Structure to design on (346 residues):
């Protein structure tokens, strides 16, 4: 009786999943392992005939250089961490996608790290980025806490922060204050006097800046203004805040929403529960210009943040930092454009 493994003539699954090695290329080409290494090392010396044999063998076998292993040996990598909490939500998702595209364009390997919302998840994300020797880290607005940034800085990893301010880090920021003040002025000049701003209890830097700038501008114009907040800066947050606003005896005639997802929730409550007409009874401006803003159901007037522009600015700052680690912190500010649709026409 044979208790050994049955050989059915098929390649074992484990072997099928192995990548082609440089040693296999050397055997196929009839050259040394070092000749293969030199062939794929920019600037290394190798005879033309040897190079041709190696490249032909590599193509026949489907061989690709193990960049990760090469980076580990050199104590560096092309990995760049894109760090966010809830990266699938709203503008953050489009910004993460634009960052990935820009990083791949420069030959980097983007890694999307969802920090989660618990201490354990945050710790796991920190260990992964440090352990894999990420070339740089790009952190999106609102996440993670300062402890994450401090750990990256202690390990000497270049850091670019989008949408928030942190000491000793390079920044890309939207013109939140400029846009919010413009929204208040546009409402006032169109004859709207009962204004409201909707933010969230999440308290992210961008949301807080938009709330406070709108509130200050509206009050300086002499308009009455109220603040409403949902639990988070998402659709449900807009629903919750909208219900609170419309339960009051004196309802607003114009609302500035700290992002588009909040605006969508507000608009649905305004139409379906409060029976208000938009924009006749209620004018609404959002922020971000996510693709859904142009949907026929919403046609939302909103401030556009261009995710590709912000991504390109962030990658440029990262490259500057890699070239000159001791340069003083730099900052880029991107002023949003007001996109006019049906929810409010100044």
């Amino acid at each position: 009786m044979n208790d050994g493994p049955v050989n059915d003539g098929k390649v074992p699954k484990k072997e099928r999943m192995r990548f082609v090695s440089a040693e296999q290329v050397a055997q196929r080409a009839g050259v040394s392992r070092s000749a293969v290494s030199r062939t794929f090392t920019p600037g290394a010396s190798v005879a033309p005939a040897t190079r041709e044999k190696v490249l032909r063998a590599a193509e026949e076998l489907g061989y690709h250089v193990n960049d990760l292993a090469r980076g580990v040996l050199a104590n560096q990598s092309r990995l760049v961490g894109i760090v966010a909490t809830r990266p699938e939500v709203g503008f953050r998702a489009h910004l993460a996608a634009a960052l990935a595209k820009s990083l791949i364009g420069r030959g980097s390997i983007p890694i999307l790290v969802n920090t989660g919302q618990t201490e354990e998840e945050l710790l796991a994300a920190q260990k992964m980025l440090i352990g894999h020797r990420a070339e740089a880290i790009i952190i999106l607005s609102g996440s993670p806490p300062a402890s994450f940034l401090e750990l990256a800085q202690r390990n000497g990893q270049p850091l670019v922060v989008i949408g928030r301010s942190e000491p000793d880090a390079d920044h890309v920021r939207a013109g939140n204050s400029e846009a919010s003040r413009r929204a208040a002025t546009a409402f006032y000049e169109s004859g709207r006097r009962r204004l409201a701003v909707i933010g969230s209890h999440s308290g992210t830097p961008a949301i807080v800046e938009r709330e406070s700038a709108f509130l200050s501008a509206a009050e300086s114009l002499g308009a009455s203004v109220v603040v409403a907040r949902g639990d988070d800066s998402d659709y449900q947050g807009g629903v919750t805040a909208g219900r609170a606003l419309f339960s009051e005896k004196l309802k607003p005639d114009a609302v500035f929403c700290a992002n588009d997802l909040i605006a969508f929730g507000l608009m649905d409550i305004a139409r379906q529960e409060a029976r208000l007409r938009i924009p006749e009874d209620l004018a609404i401006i959002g922020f971000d210009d996510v693709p859904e803003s142009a949907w026929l159901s919403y046609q939302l007037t909103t401030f556009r943040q261009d995710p590709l522009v912000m991504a390109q600015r962030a990658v440029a700052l990262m490259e500057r930092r890699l070239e000159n680690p001791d340069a003083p912190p730099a900052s880029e500010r991107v002023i949003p454009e007001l996109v006019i649709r049906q929810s409010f026409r100044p």
User: Anything to note?
Assistant: Residues 205-221 form the longest helix (17 residues).
